[in-house]
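INFO  loader      accepted 1 record
INFO  loader      residues=360
INFO  predictor   begin
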Amino acid sequence: MTWRIAHWSKLLVALVGLLLLGVAPAAPTSAPAQAAPARQGVALPQPTRIVYGVPPGLAFAVYVALERGYFQEVNLEVELENVNNTAAIAPNLVNGSLDVGHMAAAPGFFNAIARGLPIKAILDASHYAPGGRSHVVMARQELYDNGQLRSVEQLRGRRVALSSVPGGLGIDLDRALQRVGLTIDAVEQVQIPFVEQAVALANGSVDAAVTLEPFATQISERNVAQVIRYLNDDYPDHQVSFPMISTKLIERPEVTRAFAVAYLRGARDYERARQFGEGVDEIAQILSRYNRQNATAVAAAFRNGGMTAIDPDGRLRVESIQYDMQWYHQRGFIDREIDLAEFVDMQYADYAVSVLGPFR
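INFO  predictor   done
INFO  writer      dumping tokens
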């Protein structure tokens, strides 16, 4: 389903300088006068439409940039296309149906790159914050209460729900199990979407689930299951997802640069909320319009360390992508490993930082 997103400016134009700099200007002739030429230089000469394909609810920085008018400022009209079949993103990038695709480092993605598809990852969309509480292992309440399942060691031989098999959460679980001398082969993986895991835990069809916030809090509050492991500790800086471009925007770098500047402004607002608590309720309200989650629950996830991070300079965790690729290759899920230097292109993030300056 496709929505054309109308960009709002009425409440935002007067605040742009303050949100970008994070402080109030000392005088009207100082910071705003310096910032305006940089943004004007970024803005495209005429309105330009791009289509951003993303699984519903996951493009945090894009949602913030849309709602706060940052794309409009650079003359970009961003149309969101919700994509339920993520395997379609890479080929739709290449054939031009999508201009930007939001993807995870999954087997289908690696195999597409290995086949020679001209795709570049350009910015960070989500990674595990070290010490955060965004992704967890939960044990079914009955097993937790009677002490049969209080640690990952006790997962051996049990049925564990994962949103995708194989997938990044399976890698997280494998790393947690490796710490106690096991591997993911010690458990029975059951593919169940996040929204259905509470039911599966409640009716006993699985013993544990690997999930994320705000689902984890909802499950715990209903006494369906309890957290036994925070996976951020086992795989800090795990790269969750990233925007990608193909030939269409590779050949139009001025459009991609404008996109990167507006995107990174949205990412920085998100990070100010996550790191410093600035504007948490407003950012939570924005995200709730797209992820169908209660805004209060989203705000609580921000305050409790339950949100993933976005690098305020847009930098991808290349070491994490490399690890995941090798993990999939060793288990036969991808045909061959690829040279990530040919896939990761940080020039647009670097340009955006040169325009916006240091994060603060």
